[in-house]
Amino acid sequence: EVQLVESGGGLVQPGGSLRLSCAASGFQFSYADMSWVRQAPGKGLEWVSSINGGSNLIQHTDSVKGRFTISRDNAKNTLYLQMNSLKIEDTAMYYCAAGFVQRPKSLSEYTYRGQGTQVTVSS
Q: Of 17, 68, 74, 91, most Cβ neighbours within 10 A?
């Protein structure tokens, strides 16, 4: 059974940091392109970051460049998203997903996806 389980979300003040983790199982994680996708309240899905299996191709959406870093540990089957200098507009449900879709309309466009972890940035 494929599982993607996100953790690490929470409430943080503007300017703060969080590190999201995604534990993967049930598929060959080390070969999979992996992505973080988010959905803010009342808005559509937004692709955030992607990384290939070898970690030599990394992409971030412009609004998080210089603040967020995607990484992975294939030995631990885990995907990470280090989020620094958080802004109120980063508030969203963050999903871990297998695959790369730059303008997703639905999480079903990804091969696998998790249940999400909530990130709330508020003073």
A: 68
